[in-house]
Structure formats: C-alpha cells, structure tokens
C-alpha cells in the first residue's frame, strides 16, 4: 500500500474511544485497592529456591516492548502508523492495516511498574538469595577460578589459627580456612591432573621404585591445584610432605582443604597476615619428632626461616630445590658468603622453567589477571613493562597482541636490544610515567617503582607486579596519613591523593597472576616435573657428587621433562642417524644442548 493511499484512509478513520482512567498523582507508583484488581490479573512468575520458575512473560500487554518477549501479545505490524490523540491526554494510538485504531493503555503500564516494584520488594532477603545461589552451584562461589576465589564464600571471619579442625580420619595436623571445602578442592585437583601429563606419567613410572622413600620434604610454594598434584606425586614416590604458602594471597582454600583431608599437613589460607605467614612456616617446620631432610622453596622464605631459627636442621638436610629468581638470588648470596650449608638446585634457570613457565605462563596470565581485577580494555592503552626477561617478554607479547602501546625499561643491554628488535620502545621509567595507563614490574629487584613515580602517575593508572617478590613496588611509602586507601574489590585498592587523583593498585604489589587470577595448568606441569626430578636427583645423589653450592639441573633432565609433554600434542621427534650424530659430536639420545645453554 502506497503512502498516499494510507494517508487518505487515515484521514477518513475516526479514532475509537478507548476507556481510560484518569491518573492521580499517586497512581503511577502506588497500588491502591481499586488498582490491585488490574495488576493481580496479570500473570506472575514466582521463584522460590525449591522450584523451577515458570516462564511467564515479564512484559505485559500494555508495555510497548519487543514482541519476542510477549509471545501472547499481537504487536502492531511494521507498516502501522503511530499518532497521538490530543483529546486523550496525549495517549498514543496505533493505526493498523485494516484501518482500526487502538490506543496503548498507558495507565496499565504504569500500574504494572508499581506492581513490579512491589514484586521486587517481595524477593528473598539476603539470606534467602544466598541459599538460592548456593543451591544452584555452591562450587561456583567456593572454588571458582582456582586462585581467583576472589572472596571466600564463608561468612566466618574467625582466624584459622583460632579454630580446631579435624579431617574425616580425626587428624588435626593442619591449619586451613575450612575443611568442609575438601570436596570442591578434590574436583579442582582432578581437573588439574588432566593437564599435567608428565607428573602423572612420572607418578606411574616411578611409583613402584619409590625413589623418594624416606624423604621428608618441607615445602613453601603457591598452594594451588597444580601444587597439589605435585605434592600427591611426591607422596606416591615415597615422600612425606609438610607445606606452607609462599604468598599470602595465592592459596586456594578449597585445595588446601582437599590436601588436609587427604592427610597432608598444610598450613595456609588465602588472605594471611604477615604474622600468619611466618607462623604457618614455623608450624610447618617445627614439629616434635619430625625432621625435614629436603626443602622445596619458592622465594627463599622457608630457607631463610630455617637458617635463622633452626640452623641445626641443616645437618640432616640433603638439599634445597628453589624455583624463583628471588630465591635463587638469595642462595647465590649465601654461597658467595660461604654460608650455604647444603647443595641447592637452581630450577628457575633450567631451560624448562625459563623458556616455558616464565614466558608462556605469563603471556597468558597477565591478561587474565588484569581483566578479572579491573575490566580494562587493552586496545590503545599505553603500558610500561619494567624488565624484559622471560616474564617481561611474555607480558609484552600479550599486550602488544591486544593492541596496547608497550614501552620497556631494562638494565641489561642484551635484553634491551631484544626488546628493540621485537618492536618495543626502550625508555627510562621517568620519561613515560606521566602518560602511561598501566605499569607492570617483572624484574625481581626492589624499589623499581618508588613514591616519586607513584606521585607523578596519571589519574586511574593501574599498577601491578608480575615478579615473585612484593618489593618491586614501594607500597610501604603509600601508607601515609595524607593518602586514602579504598578497597573496591578483593585484591584491588584505590590509593587516593589529597587532590583527588587515584591509582589502582593490584594485590598490594604482590604477584598478580597467582593472587588475582589463574595460571595455565599445562605449563606448570613442566615446572612441577622439573622440581620433582630435582628432588629425586639431590635425594639420591651419592655423597660428594654435589658440594655446598648452587647447581643447574642437568640438560638431560631438562630434555626428559620436555619429552614427557610431547605426546599431548601428538608430536613426533626426528631421530639422528649415526652419521649425523657423529658429525655433530652428539649422542643420538641426547643431551642435545651443552650445560651452559639457557
């Protein structure tokens, strides 16, 4: 139908009178007795925690909303014209194809709004909503995202140190948040096992031999589902384990509960205080009748505590396995000073740690940590990454791929040249600190971002750390009377200056990915397998093989760890012929790299 014909027909049509009730000042937002009959005649959806809600249309007949929300309502055709009748208090009328006119009952819509408000007020209270959400999926609050259980679902604020908990077997030699979360933690561990093929293969191959029989391993690492798989593997190989956390924010409470239920002595929970941190380490070490003979450390805090409080323990300790750059630095300092009492294995600088965990893990987890905490969009953001080691390389690659403008600071000319040839601009931090949107530290050093830089940052700048230690950002300098701290999310603080400027500080300057998000399980399988082999090597080494010094894992072991992960990708290695092996001067079965290769 042409527009001219439709206009002519409309001119001949008289509007039909549609009964309407005059609105009173209180009618739009109140439900008087004479209005209730109209409202209550409409279908309602009643939701309870015990029944499935009936899918009734939310939008009522008089509500001009999209038709797909109201399947029982006939909406005007696309060709219908809308007009206003000045005699009907500005009510809107629809002229249909057949010439009839219908007015949208505005009164009914407004009364329905009042009813919707009333129905909203009838919804369950906070306790009721909690019960409903937990009945749907308790694990969604208790164990979501592994390390990223942003807040514990328990309302009990009692310190775990003040609780008396026992597992189902009556054992109470542990201190965790809530033993009742063990079932959820077990599910997390089972999921992690599927992505840790090398550890599972090692567990299967060496379980009969028990190469760690008699080993008493005291550990201080991140307590996550991946660490749990490592601990259970060590136990399957014959070791006894006692464990504490190396980071106050990275513990998965549900995993700690599962380990405690399984008989492991675990002393850790998410959100420990500094005092709690050292108390847990002490409880882990100081047990009458139990003497550790192996140390597995991440950051050097456990080694430092034993050296400071219980130096005589080193008489029976066979070796230390350390996986972080901070901890390795401490070990080299002890060795240089002649104070290192036992052999130590530097896992951090093994190829399987440097080239995989540090690079690929951080390449994926940096984005995850920033997204979960800030919901920031990376495209077009200016980011400065302090340090271009393997961690820095991973962070820069991820941010560049998301469209960020990335600057790099570096002290090492070799790493600096790599950054330049990878397309990043090398700068000093003070040259860009006023303009960048995100500052990321990953140097392993201290005081990389000091108060001077924090004062000069732009409003809303995000500041975080991807190094192990919390010393890279001078957080202590921000705890002054003139600055206001505002907690906006778990692990997210706004630090506000007197003029209103604020920065967004993540995890109080601690390790971002394990404090605020998760890390890829598969790449941690590589590191965990390397740690397990290092423990086996040091524990079984004949006396005199390793002196009181810091050693790198033999390349043959690095290559073995890598080979255990290749079947996951259905990968097939090429084998050297005898002639090729002779030409290169190599054994056909490796090692293929010299010991100094990193």
Automatic annotation (TrEMBL):
<keyword id="KW-0378">Hydrolase</keyword>
<comment type="similarity">
    <text>Belongs to the adenosylhomocysteinase family.</text>
</comment>
<dbReference type="GO" id="GO:0005829">
    <property type="term" value="C:cytosol"/>
</dbReference>
<dbReference type="InterPro" id="IPR015878">
    <property type="entry name" value="Ado_hCys_hydrolase_NAD-bd"/>
</dbReference>
<feature type="compositionally biased region" description="Basic and acidic residues">
    <location>
        <begin position="32"/>
        <end position="43"/>
    </location>
</feature>
<dbReference type="Pfam" id="PF00670">
    <property type="entry name" value="AdoHcyase_NAD"/>
</dbReference>
<feature type="region of interest" description="Disordered">
    <location>
        <begin position="17"/>
        <end position="174"/>
    </location>
</feature>
<feature type="domain" description="S-adenosyl-L-homocysteine hydrolase NAD binding">
    <location>
        <begin position="358"/>
        <end position="519"/>
    </location>
</feature>
<dbReference type="GO" id="GO:0006730">
    <property type="term" value="P:one-carbon metabolic process"/>
</dbReference>
<feature type="compositionally biased region" description="Basic residues">
    <location>
        <begin position="123"/>
        <end position="132"/>
    </location>
</feature>
<feature type="compositionally biased region" description="Low complexity">
    <location>
        <begin position="133"/>
        <end position="143"/>
    </location>
</feature>
<dbReference type="GO" id="GO:0004013">
    <property type="term" value="F:adenosylhomocysteinase activity"/>
</dbReference>
<protein>
    <recommendedName>
        <fullName>Adenosylhomocysteinase</fullName>
        <ecNumber>3.13.2.1</ecNumber>
    </recommendedName>
</protein>
<dbReference type="InterPro" id="IPR000043">
    <property type="entry name" value="Adenosylhomocysteinase-like"/>
</dbReference>
<comment type="pathway">
    <text>Amino-acid biosynthesis; L-homocysteine biosynthesis; L-homocysteine from S-adenosyl-L-homocysteine: step 1/1.</text>
</comment>
<dbReference type="InterPro" id="IPR020082">
    <property type="entry name" value="S-Ado-L-homoCys_hydrolase_CS"/>
</dbReference>
<dbReference type="InterPro" id="IPR036291">
    <property type="entry name" value="NAD(P)-bd_dom_sf"/>
</dbReference>
<keyword id="KW-0554">One-carbon metabolism</keyword>
<keyword id="KW-0520">NAD</keyword>
<dbReference type="Pfam" id="PF05221">
    <property type="entry name" value="AdoHcyase"/>
</dbReference>
<dbReference type="GO" id="GO:0033353">
    <property type="term" value="P:S-adenosylmethionine cycle"/>
</dbReference>
<dbReference type="InterPro" id="IPR042172">
    <property type="entry name" value="Adenosylhomocyst_ase-like_sf"/>
</dbReference>
